[in-house]
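User: structure tokens for Biotin carboxyl carrier protein of acetyl-CoA carboxylase, please.
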Amino acid sequence: MTKTHDSDVAFIKALAELLRENDLTELQVKRDYAEDDSLNVRVSRQMMAAPVATVAAAPAAAAPAASAPAAPAAAPVSAPADPAQDPGAVTSPIVGTAYLSPEPGASAFISVGDTVSEGQTLLIVEAMKTMNQIPSPKAGKVKRILIEDGAAVEFGAPLVILE
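Assistant: Done. Predicted tokens:
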């Protein structure tokens, strides 16, 4: 059974402040006090930007579906409206900060129009001070880069579109 410690409330408030200050969406921490005494805390918040983008994309997708003759011409236009649905989208496997180059001042891993091979590093996502290389899942051409250098990314967020 977990006992309430006076410092737990202050600890949870500090986690919430850390979440807000670093623009994070979720933190999870386990604190062990003794063999049978611990505290598991998960602090999260809802980001409002994603639902707004989804709602805005829905009417645009519904309009081409209403007119059958325009459907073949509208298919390429509707794909960029929601990059996550693009078949060539490379998404983030983790929450973190995305970097387009290996270090500040260095040239970017990729540019729009580049041809990449399967397994080639497209960018880096830093999570908890660990640099995670994001490899290309397939060979192709870089159609779009959807993030800016140093941008915060969520799990599943589209990063790059490959053709």
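User: Anything notable?

Assistant: The radius of gyration is 21 Å.
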